[in-house]
Amino acid sequence: MRIFYVCQRVPFPPDRGDKITTFNEVKHLSAVGHEVHVFCPGEDAADLGNIPGLLDYAKTATAFPVSPWRARLQALLALLGGGSLSVAAYRQPQLHAAIGEKYRELKPDLFIVYSCNVAQYAEPFPNTPRIMQFAELDSMKWAQYAERSSIPMKWIYRIERRRLFAYETKIAHDFDHALVCTGDEKRDFERLIPGVPVSLVANGVDLEYFRSAGAAKTPGSIAFTGVMDYLPNIDAVEWFAREVLPLVQAKVPGAHFVICGNRPAPAVQRLADRAGVTVTGRVPDVRPYLDSAEVFVGPLRLARGIQNKVLEALAMGLPCVTSVAAWSGTVVPQGEGIVATDDAREFAVHVIRVLQDHGYRAEMAKKARAAAEAHYGWEVQMKALDRVVAEVTAQPVGVH
Fold first, then answer.
1. Single pTM value for the model
2. Domain 221-375, CATH number (from 3.40.50.1220, 3.40.50.2000, 3.10.20.70, 1.10.20.10)
């Protein structure tokens, strides 16, 4: 089957949330015999430079950059004109034209679109089956942002929440099937957009790649990983460094918080001025940082869906202490390698216990790896995707 796969950035290398999912889906679809053509806006020249690596997994890959200034201008015009800012920011006329040309040339059997922001690129082709992979409803993320922001951003986020939800609703009804990544997201979707077929395809983790090498643990080491110019990650590490870490250090003076991730925002960089905080910036491989840590923290207060960083830490056999939102995106019971709370003092108590109790830490580490193996191997998730692809392409287009 010939599949046009549309996503919001070049899905290689798989080094951040959405790229991990899109890369593994492209890889799987090609491996089971489909001819996959990838289309996406590019973040920048470096992103476009990743295309050759992707061609080991896709038949072709077509990307055009959307410059930051152009994205901001398009979002501003959408704000004034009544459209969704997110959708406008991802508009790339050359990519629209390229997809239209390839469509006429190759006549694909199916569109798979990851992220509602780029659904616009499949909208002109209603006569071809289309799967919309929401992962989560992004409009609800903007509602979370509004709750934690002050005017005028509070107003802008509220406007975007309303407009993007209207667009998500339209796309959900226009496309043939919707995908989300957690049970909570599926329940929200069915409540907010009833009458649309929706299936669960969860994220996974590469269980061979993310496997502990048995490195010596650095006493008191606390790890966090993620792209560090992303608001939920910035909010998470600021909260932990300000509200939780001092409580931990009062009981474990040598406790050290390592923030490992690309593009640290100025607010994150300033955290390095605090005692016991290291900000690494971009690293070639996060595994050594996870492997040397005694505990992983995921204090995300602005979180929806599955956090890949949590899955990776579990796979590395690293005990995890997270927010309730970051934990609830998983199917792992509390105590099985992960514990969750939103209270700063309780969060500190959990971290302190892992750092101080060697036996407990070893038990939680073993359970963490077991949980990843039991629930989050990619092959399990891809079987769910295969079932939806077979269902959608077997039925008449537009029949729900």
1. 0.88
2. 3.40.50.2000
